[in-house]
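User: Second chain of the day. Same drill as before.
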Amino acid sequence: MPRIVPLVLPLSVLLASIMTFGSLAENYEFAAMKSSGISFQRSMYSITIFIVLLSILSFFFANNVIPYAEYKFINFRRNIAQVKPAMAIAEGQFSEVGNYTIKVEKKTGKKGNFLKGVTIHRKLDNGEGSTTVIKAEEGELVSSESSNTLKLVLTNGNYYEDIIPKRYEERNKIPFAKGTFKKDVINIDLSKLNQDNMQNVDISNTNTMLNVNELRFTIDSLNKNYKKDIKSYAENIYLRTGVANTFYGVPAMLAKKINGTNLLQNLSDDQKREIFKIAVNNIENTGFSIDSSKFEMESKSKNINSHWIALFDKFMIAFSCLLMFFIGAPLGSIIRKGGLGLPIVFAVAIFIVFHFINTFGKRVAQENQMSAFLGVWMSSMILTPLAILLTYRAINDIGGMVSFDVITEPIKKLFNFNKTAKSSAVDLSDLESNAAQEPKQYLNPIENITSYNKEVKITLVLYIVTLILSLILVKIQADSLKIITGLSLIAFVYFIFRTQNSINEIANKTGKTIEPGILISLVVGFPFYIFIYFYNKKVLQELDSK
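Assistant: Same format as last time:
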């Protein structure tokens, strides 16, 4: 399908760049280049130009080729329903044919026109929702190439239909009708689906078939219609109250002076009861009207958001090629591995993160929980700092990016995996009685400072992640996001205690009190942690220099 290309292209660029630059680094080609005076950025120059051209080409492809291919693909799929109707219905899944959604368990016959285990959902006249379900043991498709009608003959089945009462109070009972049949014939109109000239098919409401200019025009029209509908609906609710026509046609001579500020005190008890009754009925009718129009307004809002997403997505595809290159190229030179082994692992892992964030952002944006721009570009915004960091480290020849000691060492310490090493160290220290009598200020705190630096980096990352998730949680009340934020907060508090423990050990060995402690951030407030972090960092740098 055409829509798969935007997913494949960034992954291909990422994998190819990791494999290429990883192979060059593994074979010491970069070392030879640097000895000859060729820097890393100069070696990337020609490939960067190619990636820029590829990004421009990908935008042209997303703006022109994909919409046209999607247009042809969907209309060609619809035209199959007339020539070979059985091809329009797939086994084991629901297929849309006209105003019907059909699912069959098995197809037999030379043309696949004999069906078994048929389930049909019939849509409403407006094409939204379904209140009728038909289930049959067997069925047969009968059609002619010269006819715009598809005939479906069903045998031995049941018929179910949800009945929607006119009175809103009776809808909670969920009434329905049920019937059985030995033979039933359904005629499906294909005149709207099968057009000999596919250029005449109306595609104005399909965002995947439009280019940038068409999307801008369509979005402008949809926004105008949406605002017009809201204004019309508000006026309709106002007119329903009858306020505008209350004194229409009443002669001025009938007007009387009202005593006091309370209008009800000038009326009789019967008139008051009548007024309250009318007010309650108006409120109930207005509430029912709002509930019935809510789904329609939400559907129109989602349609507008989907068009905005399609517009921004065309530019994001082009940028993602550049982004994946500046992640893959420096990462390959750092890990120094080419071929199809480790590069595939890194490429797939990075792309899964990219695709997950991209899909999550689009879904949330379509539900109107955030702007379409932020939803589409969220994945690029999150991975761009990674690309900058990797490129910086590759240019300055800073290695050690694949070391996971910063993650594994705290876990080992937590579960005492290095207990044997510690025990042996204690036994050796016991043999030296003089060392046990040394004052605390002569003990070496470098090991504790190193441990603190590792733990405080993890704590800082968890602090930033928790802060970002908390800000997103203010706008998006999703259960999964609440769980992730809670886990991040728990991990942050855990490493707060670990860093405080390291500070206490440093203070014991140096004889200097380091205040304020990290734990005070749990008392004064979560946002103040960043100030305490930089203060303690400055104090420990002074100790380390001494």
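Residues 1-83+210-241+276-402 form one domain.

User: Great, on to the next one.
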